[in-house]
Every structure is written in C-alpha cells, then in structure tokens.
TrEMBL record, chain A:
Domain of life: Archaea
Species for this entry: Natronobacterium haloterrestre (Halobiforma haloterrestris)
Keywords: Membrane, Transmembrane, Transmembrane helix
Protein known as: CbaC protein
Transmembrane regions: 39-56
Automatic annotation (TrEMBL), chain B:
Molecular function terms from GO: cytochrome-c oxidase activity; heme binding
Keyword Nuclease annotated: no
Keywords recorded for this protein, A-Z: Electron transport, Heme, Iron, Membrane, Metal-binding, Respiratory chain, Transmembrane, Transmembrane helix, Transport
The species this protein was found in: Natronobacterium haloterrestre (Halobiforma haloterrestris)
Highest taxon in the source lineage: Archaea
One GO term describing the cellular component: membrane
Domain Cytochrome oxidase subunit I profile residue range list: 25-520
Name of the protein in its database record: Cytochrome c oxidase subunit 1
Family: Belongs to the heme-copper respiratory oxidase family.
Localization (cell): Membrane
Recorded topology in the membrane: Multi-pass membrane protein
UniProtKB/TrEMBL annotation, chain C:
Parts of the chain that traverse the membrane: 24-47
UniProt keyword annotations, A-Z: Membrane, Transmembrane, Transmembrane helix
Taxon lineage: Archaea, Methanobacteriati, Methanobacteriota, Stenosarchaea group, Halobacteria
Domain of life per record: Archaea
Protein name: Halocyanin HcpB
Organism: Natronobacterium haloterrestre (Halobiforma haloterrestris)
C-alpha cells in the first residue's frame, strides 16, 4: 500500500491531533463552548480517521 | 576521531565509563517512573496500592530518583562524551574519572537507601522530606550525607573536565575552545557557583542539626540557600539538553548549527543570570521582603532571553537541514525533516513541549500570578513539561543516538523507539493539561488525598473526575513509554556484532567561532561578573534573614517525619509554631 | 514519490552555505509561536483577573 506520506510523519501527525484535541477542549471552554467527553472523543476519532483516509487514499493516478 | 569509527572504537575505556553513568541513570529512571505511576493512580483515587501515609516516601523517591539521579548521571555521561569527543583526547587520568563516578554512585546509594528504608519499619531510617528537604522536616543523616557525597562527585567531575581542557590548551595554544567543551565548562561554572548554596545549607546547618549537634536552625535561611541552588539546578538539567540540541539536532536534521558564537553567548548568559533569581521560588515565603522578591522577578524575566535565542538558533539549524534535504516554503520545509529518526523526533517534540511549557514558567515567575498557582498541581504540571520532558525526553532521544556510538551496536527497534518518544509526548500532554487545569482551580500538589468533604472544586470544563481520569491515563502512557525506552536500551546493549547506522561525526557550524570576539572564551571574566551579580542579589536578603531569625534560628526543633506518631508531629509542630510566633 | 525517497536518504541533496541560507521558515515559525504566546497571555489575564470573584471580605 502506498501512503501519501511516510508512516513516521503520520504517527507524529496523529499525536499532534491528540494534543490539539486535548488543548482545544480547554480553549473552547474558555470561550463558553464546552464539549462533553463523548463529543471530544467523537471529534477526535473523526479527525484522525480523516487523516488516515487522506494518507491511504491513492494519490491520484499521477506521480 | 578517525572517520567512520564510533566513539567506542576510538575511546573504549571512556565509552565504558560513560555507559556506567548511563546505566545508573536508566536504573533511576525505571524506579522513579514506577513511583510516578503509583502517585498518578493514588492521588486520583483510581488505584491505591499503598497507604496514604506512605505517599511521602514514594514522592520523595520520585523526586530524588528522577531529578537528582536520573538527570545528573545522564548529564555527566553526556558531558564526558562531549569533552572527550570535541577535545579529541581522553581524560588526563582515568582513575580520577572513575573516582568521581564512584563517589557519585556511593552518594546516590546512601541517599536512596535512606529514602527506601522508609518503606519498612524494620530499619529505623527514613527520609520522607521530599526532594526539597525543607527544615524543620528532618531526614536521617544518611540522606544528607549521601547528597553531599554525590554533589562532591559532580564537583570532581567538573575538575576533571577543566583539567582535560587545560591539558588541551597546552597543546593547542591560542585556539578557540571547541563548542561542546565550552558548553560543558560554562555549565559547570554555573553549577559550582550555585551548588555552594546547598552545600552550605546541608553542611553548616541541616546535617549538624540532624545529628543533634546543634539544637535548632533557621528554616527561612536554609530554604533560601536551597533555592539559591534550586533555580540554577534546573539549568543544570536543561543545559545538557541544550547541548544536545545545539550539537546533535542540526546534524540529525541533515544540516549544520546556524551559529557557534550565538551558542556561546547563550551559555554565558546562563552563567550570569541563573543564580540571582532563586527567590522567585519563595514569593509566598514570609520573612523575605517584597523588594527582594521583585528584584528576583526582574532578573528572571531577563533569563528568557537566552532561551529565546536558543529557539531561534535551533529552529534555524533545523531549517538549514530541511532545506539541504530539499525542503521548501514557509512551513512545508517541516515535512522534509527526518521524522522517522527517533533521536530527531524525540528532541524536536521535547523542544516543542519546552517552548509552550516555558510559558507556564513565565506565569510562575510573575509575582502576582504566582499567588494563583503556588503549591497547586499546576507546579508539577510545569515540572513535567520542563525537566520531565524538555530534559528527560531529550535525554532519551539523545540516548538513541549516543548509546549506539558508545556500544558500537546498532539501535534495536528503531520503529518502536519512534513510538516511544511519541508516546511520551502524548502522555505528557494528557497528564500536564490535567495538572494545569486542576491547579488553576486550586487542587493542591504533594498530597495523597486531594479530595475534601463538603467542598467541590469548580472546574472550568468537565469535572474533577474527568481531570483525574486524564491525569491517570497520561501517567500510565508515560510509564509504558519509560519501560519501552529501558527495554530498547537493554536490547541495544546486547546487540553485539552489529554497527551503528551513523558514523558519529559532527559537522562544523555554518558560522564558526572565528566570527566571534575572543572575549567570549574568557571564562575568568564571566565567573567574576557572575559572582558580583550573586553578591548583589543575595547579600541583602541573606543578611536580613539572619538578622531577623539568627543563624541558628529561633529555637526550631526537628519535626520527625514518622507518620505513626502523628500526634507527636502535631505537638512538635505546634510547639515550633508557637515558638516562632512568640 | 520523490519526496519519500529523499526521506530515506540521510545524506543531504545539496549543500547550502551560510550566505545563501535565508531562514524564512524560522521566522514564520517564531511569528506563529509569538501569536500563540499572546493568546496564552490573554487567557491567563482572564483566568487571573476576570475569571475569579474577589476574595470574600469576612466581616467579624
Ligand atoms: C513515568 C512518568 C511520570 C509520572 C506518571 C509522574 C507523575 C507525577 C505526579 C502525579 C506527581 C505529583 C505528585 C503530587 O504532587 O502529589 C509528580 C511529581 C513530580 N514529578 Fe513526576 N511523573 C513522571 C515522570 C517524571 C519525570 C521524568 C520527572 C523528572 C525528570 C519527574 C519529576 C517530578 C517532580 C520533581 C515532582 C515534584 C515532586 C515533589 O513535589 O516533591 N516526574 N510526578
Ligand atoms: Cu526557578
């Protein structure tokens, strides 16, 4: 399977996603938007799934 | 060093010595991380394997094993490597080198024994005083003796490196000090200036008092002497990480250090500024006037400068590497960095955590905002982003490159190593985010049971239950990561018959030392200025503390940290307090 | 994919000397960092000064 990026970069990106998620929840609460745990997890799963999909989706027919 | 040869080939004896230092360090990391896990689960009431009374024995061990033993054993190894490699010569006398290692090990063992004996009643030794050992909490004398022996070991290590440098200077008159050696020597100067404080605190006051030679001491004085040392010690943990960032990271990124002179300036600034700031840990201490605290705050803000300079130099060096590897654009060059190399990725992530954790340090340093977070869980949050990641994760990442050079073996499990550093990064963000937020709503640090009857913390988002879960998950991830690291190190040590991937050479800086004024290398000058600054910052506060409380204090007896005799403790404390008040 | 291939190769593809190196990426990153710092300061300001009610005045 060909990835659009290297597995290493993907790993780091997933980690960054988790970090943004944890911190974003705090920041959003500050402006009055409080996400429940369930919602946070859902957003996280969606974001990471999107990232993985992007990575494994064949990079067009070009290249 | 001959091209293509590892450090272990070129200097087999020295490599063995550095490996010994690393093993002492890794052992401490393993034990300390285990205690960390216990704390994370205990405080949050998720799993309590110990009695709450034992919590302070655990916490003392966690603090001492990690920030004294793990960090310092690792850094003396790094420094020995840096000096030997950059001067291209072994120590003048290897027996001396083994000697200081022996002293450090002896000291660490004594202190470790005094702490760990607290777990059993069958030995009448305990030291549940935490790594700050504030009087009138009193530990068994062995605890202090061990610390002193350990510190003397580090002093001799410094002497050893100065000796190597002088020998080198004799053979290379008029040459600039190689940058790695320069960093080691300046760091050690800072260490000498600052560790005097803790040595005086222990040798003149605390140790005689614990031996019952003196009946009393002045707690404000010993605390102030402790923090005189306690801030520079954070740079003692951090500067070896800086050394690795300046020396190794550019190479790992595929580039060269952006500027050698800038690096020298940064280290000199640390020599000058790290010590006259310690009072910023005592904003809430009574008995020190606001004016002195304000001066300490101002000095502290100046200390941001060298760290910002470092951020610039390091990022520019990484960018240089990325561009040489074909990176382009304003942000796209980041993708051209070697993210699959655990040594690189670990250090880059550590630097990132450091940059943002540094902000929480500015919060601590502000006198008024400090009142908001003082002694709350916020502070361990800060500790774990800085020494617990900027230093610890950099050390682990550095080990992925250094240990192969020191053993001549190839790193086992490069992919797993990458997972390990990323796990640490994720774990630390989970744990510290919870600690910061818990601290902001007033959850205290250093307590086994932060839960109170009839009182609710008002958490901004979510609940205390969620914060606890997050802390425990983060702590568990960190523990797993630490164990993975140790496993990979052990496997690498036994991975004989292989060769490291890298040849161990360090490319020269883009802008070398010849572009900088020679005065930068005038170590005597910097020592003199640093000493003057210290005298200015500390003579008045110390004089005022002594004149108010006396050298040996207003009759402060020990508070034995024997928990079973809780009533005795309470009584002694009351007596002590009433003595102070009277 | 050329990009990935380059990644596997630790050796640099070209040599860039001091004078031809213009660290714009560093500038961009640091600008970003400062922007985040400003936000963090704002955050702290609100937590410290606006988020907390004044200390209750206890009248004996
Ligand atoms: C395995 C990962 C770790 C876990 C789970 C962990 C957990 C904790 C927890 C929960 C506390 C707060 C205890 C309290 O205030 O009641 C703490 C304190 C502390 N940790 Fe860690 N930690 C870990 C790694 C580290 C590392 C690597 C370092 C430094 C190199 C470190 C240094 C400290 C220090 C200095 C304190 C403060 C001790 C005191 O208050 O006396 N920890 N740790
Ligand atoms: Cu400090």
């Amino acid at each position: 399977m060909r990835l659009r990026t290297s597995p290493a970069k993907l790993l780091v990106l997933v980690a960054l996603c988790l970090v943004v998620l944890v911190e974003l929840r705090t920041a959003l609460a500050f402006v009055g938007v409080s996400l429940s745990i369930g919602a946070t997890v859902a957003v996280g799963v969606a974001a990471i799934a999107a990232l993985l999909l992007w990575a494994v989706r064949p990079a067009g027919s070009g290249e | 060093m001959p091209n293509g040869a590892t450090f272990a080939d070129a200097y087999p004896t020295q490599a063995r010595h550095i490996r010994a230092a690393f093993w002492a360090s890794f052992l401490s990391l393993g034990v300390g991380a285990f205690f960390g896990l216990i704390q994370a689960l205990h405080r949050t009431d998720i799993l309590r394997v110990i009695e709450s009374q034992t919590y302070y024995t655990v916490l003392t061990a966690h603090g001492v094993f990690l920030v004294i033993s793990f960090t310092i054993f690792f850094l003396v190894g790094v420094f020995q490597w840096a000096v030997t490699d950059s001067l291209e010569r072994p120590p003048v006398d290897m027996r001396f080198t083994w000697g200081w290692y022996g002293l450090m090990s002896l000291g660490a063992s004594l202190t470790a024994f005094a702490i760990l004996a607290g777990f059993t009643d069958s030995i009448d030794v305990r030291a549940n005083v935490l790594f700050t050992f504030y009087a009138p909490l009193q530990a068994h004398p062995l605890f202090y003796v061990g610390l002193v022996v350990f510190v003397v070991g580090t002093w001799l290590a410094g002497a050893d490196w100065f000796r190597s440098w002088l020998a080198w200077k004799g053979d290379n008159p008029g040459e600039r000090i190689p940058l790695p050696t320069f960093m080691v020597l300046t760091t050690m100067i800072m260490w000498y200036i600052s560790s005097i404080g803790v040595a005086v605190a222990i040798l003149a006051f605390i140790l005689p008092w614990s031996l019952e030679l003196t009946g009393s001491l002045n707690p404000t004085l010993t605390r102030t002497l402790f923090w005189y040392f306690g801030h520079p010690v954070v740079y003692f943990w951090l500067l070896p990480a800086y050394l690795l960032w300046y020396i190794l990271l550019p190479k790992l990124a595929g580039g060269r250090l952006f500027s050698d002179p800038l690096a020298r300036v940064v280290f000199i600034l640390f020599v000058l500024l790290s010590t006259p700031v310690g009072i910023h840990h005592q904003y809430l201490d009574p008995g020190i006037s606001e004016g002195f605290k304000f001066i300490a705050m101002t000095n502290t803000m100046f200390l941001l400068l060298p760290s910002l300079l470092t951020a610039f130099t390091i990022i520019a060096s990484m960018e240089h590497g990325a561009r040489q590897r074909g990176g382009e654009g304003y942000f796209n060059w980041l993708t051209a960095l070697p993210w699959r190399d655990p040594a690189f990725t670990g250090m880059a992530l550590a630097g990132m955590v450091f940059a943002f954790g540094g902000f929480t340090g500015i919060v601590n340093a502000g006198m008024n905002i400090n009142y908001l977070v003082h002694n709350t869980l916020w502070v361990p949050g800060h500790i774990h982003t800085q020494v617990g990641t900027a230093a610890a994760l950099t050390f682990m990442a550095g080990a992925y490159w250094l240990v192969p050079q020191l053993t001549g073996n190839r790193l086992v499990g490069r992919g797993l190593a990458l997972v390990q550093v990323v796990l640490w990064f994720v774990g630390i963000v989970f744990m510290t985010n919870s600690m910061y937020r818990g601290g902001l709503v007033g959850i205290p640090r250093r307590t086994a049971e932060p839960q109170y009857e009839g009182f609710e913390y008002e958490v901004a988002a979510g609940s205390v239950g969620e914060l606890n879960a997050q802390l425990a998950i983060g702590g568990t991830i960190l523990f797993v990561s630490a164990m993975l690291f140790l496993a990979l190190m052990v496997l690498t040590a036994f991975n004989g018959g292989t060769e490291p991937i890298d040849d161990g050479s360090i490319p020269p800086a883009l802008s070398g030392p010849e572009d900088s004024p020679a005065v930068l290398d005038n170590l005597k000058l910097w020592v003199a200025i640093a000493a003057v600054l210290v005298v200015i910052a500390y003579s008045f506060p110390l004089a005022s503390i002594v004149s108010r409380g006396g050298l040996f204090g207003p009759d402060i007896g020990p508070i034995p940290v024997a928990i079973d005799a809780a009533s005795t403790v309470a009584r002694t404390a009351l007596e002590a307090v009433s003595a102070v008040v009277r | 994919m050329s990009n990935v291939a380059r990644q596997e190769d630790p050796a640099s593809v070209e040599r860039i000397e001091h004078d031809e190196f213009d660290p714009v990426g560093t500038l961009a990153l640091i600008a970003f960092y400062f922007a985040v710092l400003v936000l963090l300061w704002l955050f702290t300001y609100f937590v410290e000064f606006l988020g907390n009610v004044p200390t209750p005045v206890v009248v004996a």
